[in-house]
Amino acid sequence: MEILQLIGEIFGYAAFYLAILAGVCLIPLGLPGQFLIVIACLIFILVAGSQTLTWWMFGIILFLAVFAEVLEALAGGLGAGKAKGSKWSFFGALAGGLAGAILGSLVFPIIGSVLGVLAGTFLGAYAVEYWRTKATHGSIEVAKGALAGRILGTVIKVVIALAMIVLITFSLLVGTS
């Protein structure tokens, strides 16, 4: 009976880590993969118990997931703002990125999402800034800034997601010893 329990635990941990690694892989696709990590942690706690992975750690992971999402959104806006864009170009970049991700994934799943987010961010910021100023060069600069900010935000989000995995692993190792 002990061997079956051990095999079950191994499969449980493997499934848990596959889920949280999938969460990291979803982030560059423009999806909030860090919330898949949060959901996996919640399921893990409900199945394995909070003595293995504590509710405090779950709270920290949830906070980091929300923080990463906020940072990513702000990075695109700051990129547009650094290029002298308006707050409206920030919203244009956000809406364009979302629309691009949806359209891109409909046309060509996975890689279409990535390309759609990038193209949509650029085009959304450009369109709003051009509509506002009628200046082509300035609008392109704002769109480049929004795109650079979006890319930086995504990198930051991936780093935070990896830090979440390190915290989870540390918590599991310390909690089980």
Walk me through the structure:
This protein is mostly helical and 177 residues long. It has one domain. It has six helices and no strands. Helix 2 packs antiparallel against helix 3, helix 3 runs antiparallel to helix 6 and helix 4 runs antiparallel to helix 5. The longest helix has 41 residues.
How much is the average pLDDT?
87
Strand content of the residues, in percent? under 5%
Structural class: mainly alpha
Binned, the helix content reads: over 70%
> Could you list the spans in which at least 5 consecutive residues all have pLDDT below 50?
none
Task: Provide a brief overview of the structure.
The chain is mainly alpha-helical. It has helices spanning 2-26, 34-48, 55-82, 87-107, 111-133, 136-176.
Notable characteristics:
single chain; 177 residues; mainly alpha; 6 helices; 0% strand; elongated
List the helices and strands and how they pair.
Blueprint: H1 2-26, H2 34-48, H3 55-82, H4 87-107, H5 111-133, H6 136-176
Helix pairs in contact: 1-2, 1-6, 2-3, 3-4, 3-6, 4-5, 5-6
